[in-house]
Amino acid sequence: MITREECAALDAADPLAAFRKEFTLPDGVIYLDGNSLGALPVRTPERVAQVVEQEWGRELIRSWNDAGWFEQPYRLGRRIAPLIGADPAEVVVCDTTSVNLFKVLSAALELRPGRRTVLGDAEAFPTDLYIAEGVTGQVEGGRSVLVHPEELDRHLDGDVAAVVLSHVDYRTGELLDMPGITARVQAAGALMIWDVCHSVGALPVELGAAKADFAVGCTYKYLNSGPGAPAFLYVAERHLAAGPRQPLSGWFGHARPFAFEPGYDPKPGIGRFLTSSPSLLGQAALGASLDVWERADLAAVRTKSLALTDLFVSLVEGLDGVEVVTPREHARRGSQVALRHADGYPVVQALIARGVIGDFRAPDLMRFGFTPLYLSYTEVWDAARQLAEVLASGEWREERFSRRGEVT
Ligand SMILES: *Cc1c(COP(=O)(O)O)cnc(C)c1O
């Protein structure tokens, strides 16, 4: 088995090692939860403080024009585009993933008149399913049907308007075949909506090459833009040209918001998917984190991500009571490792008490996220060692580790 010294040698040769100093992480913590809430970039507090103190505090309302506040959702969208393989005009930053899914799914249904079924993954992050239920509930005869991705083809009949899938499964870390599935869905006459929450910033995402119709994603996971930071949405250029409609027709999606006209006239292009004033403090944090991402080579991120997850799997497989749930094949793996353990919750709590932060998803999955910009091979080695010790010592049986918080 690989030694800690060998891991230190991998760190010394790591082309991404210099990124570690761009993030603030507390001493004594090995952070394996960047797939849930990314770490804080060093420059973010200063950037947010500048928006608060200078742009808001001193410049006040003038900042809408002078500091480019009005343009910010587009500017950030253009900067996210290369991370998801999109054209700059196809992406905008706004609202949350759930709200954005509501908008693009509604638009998709309108683009497929006569079809009323939306297919979703039964195991998906539930908010996506709740939104699909909400959208189809407003369409006469609409229905949202839950399937498993491997049996998708059987369900692709003439009533399916759209399919919503996560590129990477939030629980198991399984990566789906984006181009293959998109092509099959489109061949059946339906539109493909990808949720890239767990793949953006974890691996190169190629929405354009896959000919995806729509996508949504969040920025507070691998993109490190902070709790509650705004999400983004993608609409393929060919659909934008058709002038799709979305139901949250707020003033920021209007062609002339400051004309204050009583009737709604949507903006041309991606702007029609905006609804409200941007949350500029969250957007400032996103801007600071994109400053880091713009210097990162996504291919190097993917290479290191696979090496880190391979390393972790090799160190933990065979531990007592642990089953590796994440696919072994690289082509089917995102940037996290899920381990099944009957007492996963207290085991994760005991690990956190030792400074190794992962998380737990009911009923029995321990999740560990691997973020190549700020995680080293030695940290992964140490984390695996700590997990082995927690299991061998049985310390997770202490009663305090079984008490559950609101958020797991
Ligand atoms: C994190 C995540 C979300 C988050 O939704 P919000 O509306 O931004 O809270 C949605 N979908 C998936 C697949 C996620 O992983």
CATH architecture of the largest domain: 3-Layer(aba) Sandwich
Order of helices and strands: HEEEHHHEHEHEHEHEEEHHHEEHEEEH
Ligands in the model, by name, code or SMILES, are: pyridoxal-5'-phosphate
Integer-rounded radius of gyration: 22 Å
Query: Would you give the CATH topology of the largest domain?
Result: Aspartate Aminotransferase, domain 2
Question: Structurally, how many domains make up the residues?
Answer: 2
Beta fraction: 5-15%
Query: Can you tell me the CATH class of the largest domain?
Result: Alpha Beta
Spatial sequence of strands, sheet with the most strands: 4-10-9-8-7-5-6
The 3D shape can be described as globular
Mean pLDDT score, rounded? Answer: 97
The chain-level structural class is alpha/beta
- Output the CATH homologous superfamily of the largest domain: Type I PLP-dependent aspartate aminotransferase-like (Major domain)
Largest sheet: 7 strands, mixed
Question: What is the terminal separation in angstroms?
Answer: 32 Å
Total number of beta strands: 15
Family: Belongs to the kynureninase family.
Binding site for pyridoxal 5'-phosphate: 97-98, 125-128, 195, 198, 220, 251
Modified residues (N6-(pyridoxal phosphate)lysine): 221
Organism: Kitasatospora aureofaciens
